[in-house]
Design goal:
By secondary structure, the protein is mostly helical. The chain is built from 23 helices and 8 strands. The chain has a 6-stranded mixed β-sheet. A two-stranded antiparallel sheet has the order 1-2. The N and C termini lie far apart (115 Å). 43% of the residues are buried.
Length: 632
Amino acid sequence: MTDMVQALLASSYGLAALAFGSALLTGLVATPLIIRWAKRMGWVAYPREDRWHATPTALMGGIGLVGAAFVGGAASGTIDLLWPVWVGGAVLFVTGIYDDLKGMPPAGKLIAQIVATALLMMEGYLFMGDWHWAISGPLTFLWVAGITNAINLLDNMDGLAAGVACIAALVMLMVGVPVELSAVVGIMAAVAGAAAGFLVFNFKPAKIFMGDCGSLFLGYMLGAGALVVQTEVPVNASFAVMILPFAVLAVPILDTTLVMIVRRWMGRPVSQGGRDHTSHRLVFLGLSEAHAVLTLYALSAAGGALALAVLVVDTLLFYALAALVGVSLTMFGVYLARANVYAATDDPSPAGGDGAPVHRSPTETNDAHLLFRLFGHRWKAVFGVLADSALLAAAFVVAHYLRFEQGLTVSQEEQMLGALPLLISIKITVFAAMGLYRAIWRHAGTPEIVRTIGASFLASGASIVGLGLVFAWDAFSVSVWIIDWMVVTLAVIGVRFGFRGLRQYFLARTTSGPRAVIYGANDSGALLLREIRQNPELPYDPVGFVDDDPLKKAQRVQGLPVLGTGQQLAAVCRLYHVDVVLLARRAMDDDERSLARSAVENVEVPCHEFEMTLMDAPQTTRASSDVLAPTP
């Protein structure tokens, strides 16, 4: 039994469990003590207009977090194996402490990051270390400083930075375990355990913030850990190794990139704090604060899954998966960038109870938004061609691997890669001819789906002919073409309807205003629901429908349930705390309208009727004094 325990502790799994458990337990014990100490010392963050929290919250939580991480590292015996990482983390921790207590200019923090990065470089850990030092050296400084500050910026909502850091550390831990990277396993397990222990007290509603002493430490440890993983993981393809850290840390990279680009193009200082991060934009678009944080957790986990794929799939398939994930994240970032958060944050009205702006309408910017400024009125075509090019290449590769599950031969790989430029050119040309780059996809419907399917079918046919003439008619399997058509169709429709899907999803999550029930689960009721969700001048929070047809009960219309019949309206209003009844009239005949009014009369809540009508536009005449007569 003793030998079994010793063998387990000597393995990567035992090492990970020991480091994670020690750090987690230390964090759970130390963080409450830090909370009491911080309040006694007056280290408390009070609500401010440019910050998200709404109640006074203890600071300096990074002390407990960093201490827990070092305990985990010491328990696993890995501190001396990668001492530059731990010493660099200590440098950033001390820098953060000074910044939290006294304040430090950005130049001072940058110098500390350079010193910590130099320690890594001394031990041979560089970003793409097989490249020339004149390239890999600056990239290493840029990477470590970028990730360190990205996590620091990500610490803008309860539980966000700690949770994302925990997920990223766990992913790097899982990358290191199969290949027996003991030092990486020990470090990342300690960081993950410390972040998890702190997260218990930092998730909404947060009892403590980590401060710069915690966020700078976490950012540096993750950036340095990614460099070690990139250096040590046995992956033959250098480009796949380069992608690996970006996949692991996709969320902080997305957040920092989005904030920097949008602030730059909107003429705002990049270094100025504000409520325009990805988390803030998600809340602005309708999610609750906890839901926004969990959404970013999910994105971080998806990036981690992509990073783990590098260990189990062929390199070309990994590139294809990376392209699909990259296009999806870019689409998501573009959608978030178009949210006009500055119209809300510039409003002098006070924040809501959870610190979110009162105005939560998903109003988007006008034609002067960022992409229009950069590419003009053809910005959608430019983005569409670039996205489709990546999707088409990825789909063709995925189709080959789905057809040949045992793997591709060298000749098959060469033929597939040689065909990609012509394949992409043909399909993009067909897509353009079919008008796929001229549609406003957030308003797309069934006709656009049919047109996209047809365009994909014609593009596949044209590709078969074109590649058959250049290569050979039997050069590619029929099964490959069928699978390719299916993957392309799903990917192209997914990207285009993704904008509409995101829009509808966020609209359905907006919950401001009086609670309303819609009378009439019909076309008119659905139209009323869409108008409420899209029109900020109708501040209602629809909770469901009632309808006189009992067969519709418990069914759903655009995500809202049919709560009962008209005879049950009074009970529904009491049960769901309804403030107003909205009567959808257009699809009702006189008898149905009479029954609905009778049901509403028995309810002690206000009732409004909805009916869409067309009105004549007012005629205007030009005054005679406005007419200029020719000068004689």
